Amino acid sequence: MATVPRQHITQKKIAEHVQRLGEHYPPIPLDSVDRTIKRPGLVARKFGHVIDYLARVELEVDRNVLELLVLLPDVDETNKTFYADVWQPQEIQHGLILDRLQQDLGRAAAKPHLEVSFPIKILGALANLRPIQDIAKLMYFLTGASTERQAVIAYNKINQGMRELGETAISETIITPIKQQEPGHFAFYQMSATAMIQDKVLKPWQLFLTRVMREKSYHLVGTNQMKQYQADMGGVMADLGLDHDLAGYAREIGRVETRLLWAHKQGMEFPPYILKALRESVDLYRERLQRGLKFA
Ligand SMILES: [Fe+2]
Ligand SMILES: [Fe+2]
After folding, report:
1. Ligand 1 centre from 65 Cα, in Å?
2. 244: region left, alpha or beta (phi > 0 left; psi from -120 to 50 alpha)
3. 48 CA from centroid of ligand 1 (Å)
4. Is residue 279 part of a domain?
5. How many other CB atoms are found less than 10 A from the CB of residue 53?
6. 97 inside domain
7. Which of 44, 190, 214, 261 can bridge 105 by disulfide, Cβ–Cβ 3.0-4.6 Å?
8. How far is the CA of 185 from the centre of ligand 2 (A)?
9. Residues 244, 250, 253, CA angle at the centre, nearest 5°?
10. Cβ(19)–Cβ(78) under 8 Å?
């Protein structure tokens, strides 16, 4: 049984949230960026890999939109406005700005992975059946909440690091404006998933299936269930110092689904599959390091 959150989330509230995001946070223009970098070599050494990873993930937003259209063939107005008018235009700018930053640091341009994966296509084919579509929708919102939370944490950490390095232009004109846009994305997914549980859209068997599918398919932001990207993500966690407390990180990025899907498991701090995914990533990265390669 799911817990009943204190505040009822109505569809109207979600629609208003989307509208506010659109009004308050226009996409960040490329020419608003101050491209001053005091010590490019040092920035590249400390954060090159992280910027590389984030640039790729942000640029993959176009694939995420395709996935959404595959998974939610009957997408409603609010979701459409969110992805078409708010989310995609914001994320693509994040990607372009970070991609240019890494090239300013003397690194190669990002290579986004733009092909929709086979499991998504299968789920998409099944999503034409109404009961499956509702499951796909909840999975989509939970994935969004978890990945946006990972983005919020990564940008907070990287911003702190840039400030410590005295790279004020990067911090103030790149990372800060980007990081201000991520919590609104997180809130959208969080509210949308919460509303589905509150409104009891899913029957117990559908919730059961959602849990099983989360267990089988959970993956960290940008890993696309591919080993190479999982190892890259392990490197991001190491570079941002997130690998010291994986349980704490699992709690942060799993909070929404712990509350919505696993409330009946008393005392569960986070779903075990989240910690497993984090461990796998860090292990793959360490194995790669042992082979003497930092990047694939
Ligand atoms: Fe972003
Ligand atoms: Fe985002």
Report:
1. 14
2. alpha
3. 17
4. no
5. 24
6. yes
7. 44
8. 5
9. 120
10. no
